[in-house]
Design a protein that fits this description.
By secondary structure, this protein is of the alpha/beta class. It has a domain at 2-178 and 218-240: Rossmann fold (3-Layer(aba) Sandwich), CATH 3.40.50.720. The chain is 43% helix and 16% strand. It has helices at residues 11-23, 63-73, 87-92, 95-114, 148-167, 189-198, 218-231, 248-258, 284-290, 298-311, 313-318, 322-335; strands at residues 2-6, 28-33, 53-57, 77-80, 119-125, 171-176, 179-180, 203-206, 212-214, 216-217, 236-240, 245-247, 266-269. It has a 7-stranded parallel sheet with strand order 3-2-1-4-5-6-11, with helices on both faces. The protein binds nicotinamide-adenine-dinucleotide (NAD) and 2'deoxy-thymidine-5'-diphospho-alpha-D-glucose. The site of nicotinamide-adenine-dinucleotide has 30 residues, from helix 1, helix 4 and strand 5.
Protein backbone atom coordinates (compact mmCIF):
# COMPACT_ATOMS: atom_id res chain seq x y z
CA UNK A 1 0.00 0.00 0.00
CA UNK A 2 1.15 3.56 -0.73
CA UNK A 3 -0.15 5.87 1.94
CA UNK A 4 -0.28 9.66 1.95
CA UNK A 5 -0.32 11.03 5.49
CA UNK A 6 -0.99 14.72 5.97
CA UNK A 7 -0.03 16.58 9.14
CA UNK A 8 2.45 13.80 9.96
CA UNK A 9 4.79 16.19 11.80
CA UNK A 10 2.21 17.10 14.43
CA UNK A 11 1.32 15.26 17.60
CA UNK A 12 -1.04 12.45 16.52
CA UNK A 13 0.28 12.41 12.95
CA UNK A 14 3.88 11.75 14.03
CA UNK A 15 2.78 9.06 16.47
CA UNK A 16 0.79 7.48 13.63
CA UNK A 17 3.70 7.65 11.16
CA UNK A 18 5.91 5.82 13.66
CA UNK A 19 3.19 3.30 14.50
CA UNK A 20 2.40 2.59 10.84
CA UNK A 21 6.04 2.45 9.82
CA UNK A 22 6.89 -0.08 12.55
CA UNK A 23 3.86 -2.24 11.82
CA UNK A 24 4.20 -2.22 8.01
CA UNK A 25 7.92 -1.78 7.33
CA UNK A 26 7.64 -2.28 3.57
CA UNK A 27 4.76 0.07 2.84
CA UNK A 28 5.49 3.43 1.23
CA UNK A 29 4.71 6.55 3.25
CA UNK A 30 4.55 10.10 1.96
CA UNK A 31 4.17 12.67 4.73
CA UNK A 32 2.88 16.10 3.64
CA UNK A 33 3.02 18.82 6.26
CA UNK A 34 3.11 22.62 6.13
CA UNK A 35 5.26 22.75 9.28
CA UNK A 36 3.20 25.35 11.09
CA UNK A 37 4.24 26.26 14.65
CA UNK A 38 2.72 22.87 15.66
CA UNK A 39 4.58 20.80 13.07
CA UNK A 40 8.05 19.71 14.07
CA UNK A 41 10.55 17.65 12.08
CA UNK A 42 12.13 16.59 15.37
CA UNK A 43 8.98 14.55 16.01
CA UNK A 44 10.11 12.14 13.29
CA UNK A 45 13.83 12.09 13.87
CA UNK A 46 15.36 9.05 12.19
CA UNK A 47 12.37 8.42 9.88
CA UNK A 48 14.25 9.87 6.88
CA UNK A 49 16.51 6.79 7.01
CA UNK A 50 13.57 4.41 6.54
CA UNK A 51 13.27 3.00 3.05
CA UNK A 52 10.03 4.10 1.40
CA UNK A 53 9.48 7.16 3.64
CA UNK A 54 9.42 10.66 2.19
CA UNK A 55 8.51 14.07 3.56
CA UNK A 56 7.27 17.05 1.53
CA UNK A 57 6.66 20.47 3.07
CA UNK A 58 3.38 21.67 1.53
CA UNK A 59 0.11 23.31 2.42
CA UNK A 60 -2.87 20.98 1.86
CA UNK A 61 -4.88 24.03 0.77
CA UNK A 62 -2.61 24.57 -2.25
CA UNK A 63 -4.55 22.82 -5.04
CA UNK A 64 -1.72 22.99 -7.57
CA UNK A 65 0.92 21.54 -5.26
CA UNK A 66 -1.36 18.84 -3.90
CA UNK A 67 -2.36 17.79 -7.41
CA UNK A 68 1.32 17.37 -8.34
CA UNK A 69 1.87 15.29 -5.21
CA UNK A 70 -1.06 12.96 -6.00
CA UNK A 71 -0.04 12.72 -9.66
CA UNK A 72 3.51 11.68 -8.80
CA UNK A 73 2.90 9.51 -5.74
CA UNK A 74 -0.46 7.93 -6.72
CA UNK A 75 -1.49 6.99 -3.15
CA UNK A 76 -3.78 4.02 -2.50
CA UNK A 77 -4.93 5.61 0.73
CA UNK A 78 -4.94 9.01 2.43
CA UNK A 79 -5.06 9.70 6.17
CA UNK A 80 -5.69 13.37 6.81
CA UNK A 81 -4.43 14.67 10.17
CA UNK A 82 -3.48 18.15 8.89
CA UNK A 83 -5.41 20.83 10.72
CA UNK A 84 -5.24 23.89 12.89
CA UNK A 85 -6.14 22.28 16.19
CA UNK A 86 -6.04 24.62 19.16
CA UNK A 87 -9.42 25.91 20.33
CA UNK A 88 -8.01 28.99 22.11
CA UNK A 89 -6.22 30.13 18.96
CA UNK A 90 -9.38 29.64 16.89
CA UNK A 91 -11.22 32.06 19.17
CA UNK A 92 -8.80 34.86 18.26
CA UNK A 93 -7.68 33.93 14.69
CA UNK A 94 -10.37 32.19 12.70
CA UNK A 95 -9.22 32.53 9.04
CA UNK A 96 -6.49 29.91 8.98
CA UNK A 97 -8.84 27.41 10.67
CA UNK A 98 -11.35 27.82 7.84
CA UNK A 99 -8.65 27.66 5.19
CA UNK A 100 -6.85 24.53 6.40
CA UNK A 101 -9.67 22.65 8.08
CA UNK A 102 -12.29 23.19 5.35
CA UNK A 103 -10.71 24.41 2.09
CA UNK A 104 -7.67 22.17 2.61
CA UNK A 105 -9.92 19.14 3.10
CA UNK A 106 -11.80 20.07 -0.10
CA UNK A 107 -8.50 20.14 -2.03
CA UNK A 108 -7.57 16.68 -0.71
CA UNK A 109 -10.99 15.26 -1.57
CA UNK A 110 -10.77 16.55 -5.17
CA UNK A 111 -7.29 15.07 -5.60
CA UNK A 112 -8.40 11.76 -4.06
CA UNK A 113 -11.31 11.61 -6.48
CA UNK A 114 -9.22 12.50 -9.52
CA UNK A 115 -6.50 9.95 -8.73
CA UNK A 116 -8.77 7.09 -7.64
CA UNK A 117 -7.78 6.77 -3.96
CA UNK A 118 -9.17 3.53 -2.47
CA UNK A 119 -9.60 4.80 1.11
CA UNK A 120 -9.75 8.35 2.44
CA UNK A 121 -9.58 8.48 6.25
CA UNK A 122 -10.47 11.88 7.61
CA UNK A 123 -9.45 12.57 11.21
CA UNK A 124 -12.18 14.54 12.93
CA UNK A 125 -12.97 15.14 16.59
CA UNK A 126 -15.55 14.55 19.33
CA UNK A 127 -15.82 18.34 19.60
CA UNK A 128 -18.13 18.43 16.57
CA UNK A 129 -20.94 17.09 18.80
CA UNK A 130 -20.52 19.91 21.33
CA UNK A 131 -21.06 19.49 25.05
CA UNK A 132 -23.18 16.86 26.83
CA UNK A 133 -24.29 16.87 30.48
CA UNK A 134 -25.26 13.20 30.83
CA UNK A 135 -24.86 10.12 28.63
CA UNK A 136 -22.74 10.10 25.50
CA UNK A 137 -22.73 10.85 21.78
CA UNK A 138 -23.16 8.21 19.09
CA UNK A 139 -22.02 8.59 15.51
CA UNK A 140 -25.53 9.63 14.44
CA UNK A 141 -25.90 12.33 17.13
CA UNK A 142 -26.62 15.86 15.93
CA UNK A 143 -23.57 18.07 15.42
CA UNK A 144 -23.52 21.14 17.64
CA UNK A 145 -20.03 22.71 17.60
CA UNK A 146 -19.28 25.55 20.03
CA UNK A 147 -16.14 27.29 18.74
CA UNK A 148 -14.56 28.22 15.39
CA UNK A 149 -12.22 25.19 15.53
CA UNK A 150 -14.98 22.64 16.11
CA UNK A 151 -17.27 24.41 13.62
CA UNK A 152 -14.56 24.17 10.94
CA UNK A 153 -14.15 20.45 11.70
CA UNK A 154 -17.93 19.87 11.59
CA UNK A 155 -18.11 21.65 8.23
CA UNK A 156 -15.32 19.44 6.90
CA UNK A 157 -17.13 16.29 8.10
CA UNK A 158 -20.13 17.38 6.04
CA UNK A 159 -17.95 17.88 2.97
CA UNK A 160 -16.21 14.51 3.39
CA UNK A 161 -19.56 12.69 3.62
CA UNK A 162 -20.87 14.65 0.61
CA UNK A 163 -18.00 13.25 -1.51
CA UNK A 164 -19.14 9.76 -0.56
CA UNK A 165 -22.81 10.41 -1.30
CA UNK A 166 -22.27 12.44 -4.47
CA UNK A 167 -19.22 10.83 -6.07
CA UNK A 168 -18.87 7.51 -4.24
CA UNK A 169 -15.41 8.44 -2.86
CA UNK A 170 -14.62 5.75 -0.23
CA UNK A 171 -14.28 8.00 2.79
CA UNK A 172 -14.26 7.12 6.49
CA UNK A 173 -14.30 9.59 9.40
CA UNK A 174 -12.86 9.08 12.88
CA UNK A 175 -13.99 11.25 15.78
CA UNK A 176 -11.77 10.80 18.78
CA UNK A 177 -11.76 12.22 22.26
CA UNK A 178 -8.87 14.21 23.79
CA UNK A 179 -5.53 12.56 23.03
CA UNK A 180 -2.45 12.80 25.22
CA UNK A 181 1.04 11.29 25.08
CA UNK A 182 4.55 11.98 23.75
CA UNK A 183 5.17 14.80 21.24
CA UNK A 184 2.06 16.85 22.07
CA UNK A 185 2.67 20.57 21.66
CA UNK A 186 2.67 22.21 25.10
CA UNK A 187 -0.16 24.64 24.42
CA UNK A 188 -2.53 21.71 24.94
CA UNK A 189 -3.70 21.07 28.48
CA UNK A 190 -1.75 18.00 29.66
CA UNK A 191 1.71 18.94 28.28
CA UNK A 192 1.13 22.55 29.38
CA UNK A 193 0.44 21.43 32.94
CA UNK A 194 3.49 19.11 32.92
CA UNK A 195 5.75 21.80 31.45
CA UNK A 196 4.60 24.58 33.78
CA UNK A 197 4.81 22.31 36.82
CA UNK A 198 8.33 21.20 35.90
CA UNK A 199 9.34 24.86 35.51
CA UNK A 200 7.51 25.93 38.70
CA UNK A 201 5.26 28.22 36.65
CA UNK A 202 1.62 29.01 37.34
CA UNK A 203 -0.96 26.65 35.84
CA UNK A 204 -3.93 28.49 34.32
CA UNK A 205 -7.23 26.75 35.06
CA UNK A 206 -10.10 28.05 32.97
CA UNK A 207 -13.14 28.90 35.10
CA UNK A 208 -13.89 26.43 37.88
CA UNK A 209 -11.80 23.62 36.33
CA UNK A 210 -14.70 21.18 36.55
CA UNK A 211 -14.95 20.69 32.78
CA UNK A 212 -14.64 17.03 31.87
CA UNK A 213 -12.59 15.51 29.06
CA UNK A 214 -12.33 11.84 28.07
CA UNK A 215 -8.60 11.10 27.83
CA UNK A 216 -7.28 8.75 25.14
CA UNK A 217 -3.66 7.64 25.02
CA UNK A 218 -2.34 8.48 21.54
CA UNK A 219 -1.13 4.93 20.77
CA UNK A 220 -4.65 3.61 21.36
CA UNK A 221 -5.90 6.16 18.82
CA UNK A 222 -3.20 5.16 16.28
CA UNK A 223 -4.26 1.51 16.58
CA UNK A 224 -7.91 2.50 16.06
CA UNK A 225 -7.09 4.64 13.01
CA UNK A 226 -5.16 1.75 11.47
CA UNK A 227 -8.15 -0.56 12.01
CA UNK A 228 -10.46 2.01 10.41
CA UNK A 229 -8.06 2.39 7.49
CA UNK A 230 -8.01 -1.38 6.90
CA UNK A 231 -11.56 -2.37 7.83
CA UNK A 232 -13.73 0.75 8.19
CA UNK A 233 -16.77 0.79 5.92
CA UNK A 234 -16.95 3.52 3.27
CA UNK A 235 -19.27 6.37 4.18
CA UNK A 236 -19.11 5.52 7.90
CA UNK A 237 -18.07 7.45 11.00
CA UNK A 238 -16.28 5.83 13.97
CA UNK A 239 -16.08 7.34 17.45
CA UNK A 240 -12.83 6.59 19.31
CA UNK A 241 -13.10 7.37 23.02
CA UNK A 242 -10.63 6.81 25.84
CA UNK A 243 -13.33 5.94 28.41
CA UNK A 244 -11.31 7.81 31.03
CA UNK A 245 -13.31 10.87 32.00
CA UNK A 246 -11.57 13.30 34.31
CA UNK A 247 -12.29 16.87 35.46
CA UNK A 248 -9.46 19.25 34.50
CA UNK A 249 -8.69 20.10 38.11
CA UNK A 250 -8.32 16.38 38.95
CA UNK A 251 -5.78 15.98 36.14
CA UNK A 252 -3.76 18.97 37.38
CA UNK A 253 -3.72 17.72 40.96
CA UNK A 254 -2.52 14.30 39.87
CA UNK A 255 0.34 15.75 37.81
CA UNK A 256 1.37 18.11 40.64
CA UNK A 257 1.39 15.19 43.06
CA UNK A 258 3.58 13.01 40.84
CA UNK A 259 6.01 15.91 40.33
CA UNK A 260 5.96 16.90 44.05
CA UNK A 261 4.79 20.43 43.24
CA UNK A 262 2.52 22.50 45.52
CA UNK A 263 -1.16 23.21 44.70
CA UNK A 264 -0.31 26.92 45.04
CA UNK A 265 0.84 26.73 41.40
CA UNK A 266 -2.83 26.46 40.37
CA UNK A 267 -4.30 29.79 39.21
CA UNK A 268 -7.95 30.11 38.24
CA UNK A 269 -8.35 32.47 35.27
CA UNK A 270 -11.23 33.70 33.10
CA UNK A 271 -13.12 30.90 31.42
CA UNK A 272 -12.68 30.12 27.72
CA UNK A 273 -15.60 31.68 25.76
CA UNK A 274 -17.98 28.95 24.54
CA UNK A 275 -16.19 26.43 26.77
CA UNK A 276 -17.68 22.94 26.38
CA UNK A 277 -18.45 21.46 29.80
CA UNK A 278 -18.16 17.77 29.05
CA UNK A 279 -17.31 15.48 26.13
CA UNK A 280 -18.32 11.82 26.11
CA UNK A 281 -18.50 9.24 23.34
CA UNK A 282 -20.18 5.90 22.84
CA UNK A 283 -17.58 3.52 21.38
CA UNK A 284 -19.90 0.57 20.85
CA UNK A 285 -19.74 0.84 17.03
CA UNK A 286 -15.96 0.54 16.68
CA UNK A 287 -15.90 -2.13 19.40
CA UNK A 288 -18.58 -4.17 17.63
CA UNK A 289 -17.41 -3.69 14.02
CA UNK A 290 -13.62 -3.54 14.37
CA UNK A 291 -12.96 -5.09 17.77
CA UNK A 292 -11.24 -1.96 19.14
CA UNK A 293 -11.20 -0.70 22.69
CA UNK A 294 -8.66 1.37 24.60
CA UNK A 295 -5.88 -0.64 26.26
CA UNK A 296 -3.97 2.03 28.18
CA UNK A 297 -5.39 3.17 31.51
CA UNK A 298 -5.21 6.87 32.32
CA UNK A 299 -2.88 6.16 35.24
CA UNK A 300 -0.32 4.27 33.17
CA UNK A 301 -0.72 6.62 30.17
CA UNK A 302 -0.10 9.73 32.25
CA UNK A 303 2.93 8.12 33.93
CA UNK A 304 4.40 7.18 30.52
CA UNK A 305 3.67 10.67 29.18
CA UNK A 306 5.31 12.38 32.13
CA UNK A 307 8.41 10.21 31.85
CA UNK A 308 8.66 11.16 28.17
CA UNK A 309 8.45 14.91 28.86
CA UNK A 310 10.95 14.65 31.71
CA UNK A 311 13.39 12.86 29.42
CA UNK A 312 12.79 15.29 26.53
CA UNK A 313 13.16 18.68 28.16
CA UNK A 314 15.19 19.82 25.12
CA UNK A 315 12.25 19.06 22.82
CA UNK A 316 9.95 21.01 25.13
CA UNK A 317 12.25 24.02 25.29
CA UNK A 318 12.55 24.07 21.48
CA UNK A 319 8.79 24.54 21.19
CA UNK A 320 9.00 27.88 23.02
CA UNK A 321 9.67 29.97 19.93
CA UNK A 322 9.22 33.74 19.56
CA UNK A 323 5.88 33.27 17.74
CA UNK A 324 4.62 30.97 20.49
CA UNK A 325 5.62 33.38 23.23
CA UNK A 326 4.12 36.44 21.56
CA UNK A 327 0.75 34.70 21.07
CA UNK A 328 0.69 33.57 24.70
CA UNK A 329 1.80 36.92 26.10
CA UNK A 330 -1.26 38.57 24.48
CA UNK A 331 -3.56 35.64 25.21
CA UNK A 332 -2.65 35.27 28.88
CA UNK A 333 -2.98 39.01 29.45
CA UNK A 334 -6.57 38.71 28.10
CA UNK A 335 -7.16 35.90 30.62
CA UNK A 336 -5.79 38.09 33.38
CA UNK A 337 -2.94 35.68 34.08
CA UNK A 338 0.12 37.52 35.26
CA UNK A 339 2.87 35.03 35.97
CA UNK A 340 3.77 32.53 33.24
P1 LIG B 1 -1.24 19.23 15.83
O1 LIG B 1 -1.66 20.65 15.92
O2 LIG B 1 -0.28 18.68 16.81
O3 LIG B 1 -0.64 18.92 14.37
C1 LIG B 1 -1.23 19.39 13.20
C2 LIG B 1 -0.24 19.16 12.08
O4 LIG B 1 -0.86 19.61 10.85
C3 LIG B 1 1.05 19.96 12.23
O5 LIG B 1 2.16 19.16 11.92
C4 LIG B 1 0.91 21.09 11.23
O6 LIG B 1 2.14 21.57 10.71
C5 LIG B 1 0.07 20.42 10.15
N1 LIG B 1 -0.69 21.39 9.34
C6 LIG B 1 -1.45 22.42 9.79
N2 LIG B 1 -1.96 23.09 8.75
C7 LIG B 1 -1.54 22.46 7.63
C8 LIG B 1 -1.75 22.68 6.25
N3 LIG B 1 -2.51 23.70 5.81
N4 LIG B 1 -1.17 21.85 5.36
C9 LIG B 1 -0.38 20.81 5.79
N5 LIG B 1 -0.14 20.57 7.08
C10 LIG B 1 -0.72 21.38 8.00
O7 LIG B 1 -2.60 18.40 15.83
P2 LIG B 1 -2.98 17.01 16.49
O8 LIG B 1 -3.37 17.23 17.88
O9 LIG B 1 -1.95 16.02 16.15
O10 LIG B 1 -4.32 16.69 15.68
C11 LIG B 1 -4.28 15.97 14.45
C12 LIG B 1 -5.70 15.79 13.96
O11 LIG B 1 -6.48 15.10 14.94
C13 LIG B 1 -6.43 17.09 13.69
O12 LIG B 1 -7.20 16.94 12.53
C14 LIG B 1 -7.32 17.28 14.91
O13 LIG B 1 -8.48 18.00 14.59
C15 LIG B 1 -7.64 15.84 15.25
N6 LIG B 1 -7.93 15.57 16.67
C16 LIG B 1 -7.03 15.90 17.65
C17 LIG B 1 -7.31 15.55 18.98
C18 LIG B 1 -6.36 15.87 20.10
O14 LIG B 1 -6.71 15.66 21.26
N7 LIG B 1 -5.15 16.34 19.84
C19 LIG B 1 -8.50 14.87 19.30
C20 LIG B 1 -9.40 14.59 18.26
C21 LIG B 1 -9.09 14.92 16.96
O1 LIG C 1 -11.80 16.67 22.23
C1 LIG C 1 -10.89 16.63 21.17
C2 LIG C 1 -10.20 17.96 21.07
O2 LIG C 1 -9.34 18.04 22.21
C3 LIG C 1 -9.38 18.14 19.80
O3 LIG C 1 -10.26 18.14 18.71
C4 LIG C 1 -8.60 19.45 19.84
O4 LIG C 1 -7.77 19.57 18.70
C5 LIG C 1 -7.75 19.45 21.07
O5 LIG C 1 -7.07 20.70 21.19
C6 LIG C 1 -8.61 19.23 22.32
O6 LIG C 1 -9.48 20.34 22.60
P1 LIG C 1 -9.76 20.84 24.10
O7 LIG C 1 -10.23 22.22 24.05
O8 LIG C 1 -10.56 19.85 24.85
O9 LIG C 1 -8.25 20.72 24.65
P2 LIG C 1 -7.28 21.72 25.44
O10 LIG C 1 -6.03 20.94 25.65
O11 LIG C 1 -7.17 23.04 24.80
O12 LIG C 1 -8.05 21.88 26.81
C7 LIG C 1 -8.47 20.77 27.59
C8 LIG C 1 -9.28 21.30 28.75
O13 LIG C 1 -8.43 22.04 29.62
C9 LIG C 1 -10.36 22.27 28.34
O14 LIG C 1 -11.49 22.11 29.19
C10 LIG C 1 -9.77 23.64 28.57
C11 LIG C 1 -8.87 23.41 29.75
N1 LIG C 1 -7.65 24.24 29.82
C12 LIG C 1 -6.83 24.26 28.74
C13 LIG C 1 -5.68 25.00 28.75
C14 LIG C 1 -4.77 25.04 27.54
C15 LIG C 1 -7.34 24.94 30.99
O15 LIG C 1 -8.10 24.92 31.98
N2 LIG C 1 -6.18 25.67 31.00
C16 LIG C 1 -5.34 25.74 29.92
O16 LIG C 1 -4.31 26.45 30.00
Amino acid sequence: MKILITGGCGFIGSNFVRYFSAKYPSEKILNVDKLTYAGNLQNLQGMDKRKGYRFVKTDIASARKMKDIFKNFRPDAVVNFAAETHVDRSIYTQGVFLKTNFIGVGVLLNCALEYGVEKFVHISTDEVYGSITRGNFREDSVLNPSNPYSASKAAADGLVLAYYKTYGLPVVITRSSNNYGPYQFPEKFIPLVIFNAMENKKIPVYGDGLQVRDWLFVEDNCRAIDLVLRGGKAGEIYNIGGQHERANIQVIKRILKILHRPPTLIEHVKDRPGHDRRYALSISKIRRQLGWQPRVSFESGIAKTMRWYQKNRGWLKNTQTGAYRSFYRKYYSKLGLSET
